[in-house]
Task: inverse folding
């Protein structure tokens, strides 16, 4: 029975390290997505920023919980993340567009959408509908 408990603790410590790494990878991926959307001036940028802000808040809470676990007296695992995906890329492979600031991750409250389905007084066109479909695919 004690052996199974020790195995479960070891497995939990491994999964915590994997989760830590996955969060760092997701953060790097989000930065790449925002740079791409900014450069391409894609109209889904604001919606993606809102989604990323939401995910970063969740990830921040998870990281805080992981840090608490890592600081437990009985924690015997490795508290450092594995090699994140971002470390596999050279700095030169990342576009030289400025990284998003925290203020870039907010929403555009100056132009809230109308309740009748149109955006800023315009009916959604084919490009807008395609962008909304890409956003839906992105969030799935």
Result:
């Amino acid at each position: 029975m004690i052996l199974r408990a020790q195995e479960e603790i070891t497995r939990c410590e491994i999964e915590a390290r994997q989760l830590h790494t996955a969060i760092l990878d997701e953060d790097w991926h989000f930065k790449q997505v925002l740079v791409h959307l900014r450069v391409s001036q894609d109209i889904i940028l604001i919606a993606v920023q809102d989604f990323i802000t939401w995910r970063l808040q969740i990830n921040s809470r998870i990281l805080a919980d992981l840090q608490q676990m890592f600081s437990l007296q009985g924690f015997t695992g490795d508290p450092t993340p594995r090699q994140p995906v971002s470390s596999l890329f050279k700095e030169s492979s990342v576009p030289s567009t400025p990284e998003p600031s925290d203020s870039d991750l907010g929403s555009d409250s100056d132009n809230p959408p109308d309740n009748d389905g149109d955006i800023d007084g315009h009916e959604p066109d084919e490009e807008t509908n395609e962008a909304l479909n890409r956003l839906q695919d992105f969030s799935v």
